[in-house]
Design brief:
The protein is α/β, with parallel strands linked by helices. The chain is built from 12 helices and 7 strands.
């Protein structure tokens, strides 16, 4: 799959030498109704906010989806390669897209990587050395990473909702047998391997999220705390609204990005004035 199939070109670009932002959409790895276009409501807020003067580019990534034959409006077909993906296809597409953007615009590690729901899973998977080692794409790790309403522990998600079969169905549909779930879960990340340039790790969640429980944030926050965090700021943000309201209404996603960029700017200033 070529990069132009998995990356939406930057919506906004100017000649600033700081902070590019790349978004990865959610949708349970399979929902065709949630795509890179789901970033558009937040984009409108960002372009009208003063923070945009510190953002050199904005991009939103697509990736191949897992099958969804029971989708009410657009069921997947076995003949559609774009909708029959299985892990690690999703993360390989994201890495390919990032490698393309870095090659095209030359921003290296100077970016904030943002993801919502399973997009947050993918964002943190980017920083897991295992998947980059299996990819032909060479990607510089982001200086900042931000997960909203994220899924970070697949087994814990299934166990919390064991009375709702669709959770097991969604995870198995995307990742196959349960023996593969832990190695794909960001809570099993080895930060020491690949996080040398990551200066900010942000987690955001809404108390009104009806699909992904706050425990997922707690598990990922505990993982970050247990790993070597010297030189890195760990940030936890509170959101308002239900699971998809965060991106659908735009402001919660935009506000989280604004806060993350502000923290990155502050950390850069602190680093620059140190003797």
């Amino acid at each position: 799959m070529s990069a132009d199939h998995v990356a939406q070109y930057p919506k906004y670009l100017k000649n600033i030498q700081y902070s590019k932002q790349t978004y990865i959409h959610g949708g349970a790895w399979r929902d065709p109704a949630i795509s890179s276009d789901s970033f558009n409501p937040a984009l409108s807020f960002l372009l009208d906010h003063p923070i945009v003067d510190n953002i050199a580019g904005l991009a939103s990534i697509n990736y191949r989806l897992s099958p969804y034959t029971s989708h009410a409006i657009s069921p997947s077909s076995p003949d559609d390669a774009a909708r029959n993906a299985k892990h690690p296809d999703h993360i390989q597409d994201v890495l390919t897209a990032l490698a393309f953007l870095q090659s095209e615009y030359g921003f290296g590690d100077n970016y904030l990587l943002v993801g919502h729901s399973c997009g947050a899973t993918l964002a943190f998977q980017v920083t897991m050395g295992k998947w980059q080692a299996q990819s032909a794409a060479r990607v510089s790790m982001p200086q900042g990473i931000l997960g909203l309403e994220g899924i970070y522990d697949l087994v814990a998600l299934r166990d919390t909702h064991q009375d709702i079969p669709v959770y097991q169905e969604i995870i198995k549909n995307a990742f196959g047998d349960e023996k593969h779930w832990n190695e794909a879960s960001p809570t099993f990340i080895s930060i020491r391997e690949t996080w040398t340039n990551v200066r900010l790790a942000g987690l955001a969640h809404s108390a009104n999220d009806e699909l992904v429980e706050f425990e997922q944030l707690q598990l990922m926050a505990a993982t970050l705390k247990e790993r070597d965090g010297s030189g890195r700021e760990d940030l936890v943000l509170s959101l308002e609204g239900k699971h998809d309201d965060v991106w659908r209404n735009g402001w919660e996603l935009a506000q989280s990005i604004i806060t993350a960029v502000q923290h990155l700017l502050a950390s850069r200033c602190t680093r620059d004035i140190q003797p």
